[in-house]
């Protein structure tokens, strides 16, 4: 079944009994699994931009390869 | 990716960008694209990206006009040939295209073979995501 970010509460219900994850982690995984690939990538970009880590400047900061 | 299709260069999304698209809740700086080309032809894809307005950031890394960093990869440690891995790929709708994406199990296998310090953290999140995916499927 295809879901989008707004469906995260349904996914959260299914993850509720999952062991070894605290509530915060269950919320995190529910959002991530419910989201579409485009939404997941947008969340990644938004997060990195909020830290000033998007684009070429990120390479300099982390010397990532 | 559209330009690669036009040029008939086969590709597959790999690494943590592929993991993010499949629901692993981590952040990654770049998009890793494995190409079905020998590494000596890296300038071919760099030129192709430049024609789309991308800027060269490193030898095999370009920055697209929206700031996305794309890393062109020609060999992946611990995995089979491009054609073999492409057969296992998942097709995901991304940026308006059906894109071949390396499955989480293969990403984990590659990371287990490389084992840089960051890979053990990545493997943890991949494992937890696979567990959550199973739980999500089971309890429908």
Q: Say how many strands of chain A there are.
A: 0
Main sheet: strand order of chain B: 1-2-5-4-3
Please outline the major beta sheet of chain A. Answer: none
Helical proportion of chain B? 40-55%
Roughly how many Å is the radius of gyration of chain A?
15 Å
Kindly report the CATH topology of chain B.
Beta Polymerase, domain 2
The number of helices of chain A is 4
What tags apply to this protein structure?
heterodimer, A: 65 residues, mainly alpha, 0% strand, elongated, B: 140 residues, alpha+beta, Beta Polymerase, domain 2, 5-stranded mixed β-sheet, two-stranded antiparallel sheet, 6 helices, 7 strands, 44% helix
What is the topology?
The complex is a heterodimer of chains A (65) and B (140).
Chain A lengths: L7 H8 L7 H12 L2 H14 L5 H7 L3
Helix pairs in contact in A: 1-2
Chain B lengths: L1 H5 L4 E4 H7 L8 E6 L6 H10 L3 E4 L2 E3 L5 E5 L8 H7 L1 E5 L2 E5 L2 H11 L2 H22 L2
Parallel strand pairs in B: 2-5
Antiparallel strand pairs in B: 1-2, 3-4, 4-5, 6-7
Helix pairs in contact in B: 5-6
Tell me what the structure shows.
The complex is a heterodimer of chains A (65) and B (140). Chain A has 65 residues and is an all-alpha fold. Chain A has one domain. Chain A contains four helices and no strands. In chain A, helix 1 packs across helix 2. The longest helix of chain A is centred in the last third of the chain and has 14 residues. With 140 residues, chain B is α+β, with helices and mostly antiparallel strands. Chain B has one domain: Beta Polymerase, domain 2, CATH 3.30.460.40. Chain B is 44% helix and 23% strand. Chain B has six helices and seven strands. Chain B has a five-stranded mixed β-sheet. Chain B has a two-stranded antiparallel sheet with strand order 6-7. The longest helix of chain B is centred in the C-terminal third of the chain and has 22 residues. Chain B is globular, with a radius of gyration of 15 Å. The mean pLDDT of chain B is 94. The interface between A and B is medium-sized, with 34 and 34 residues.
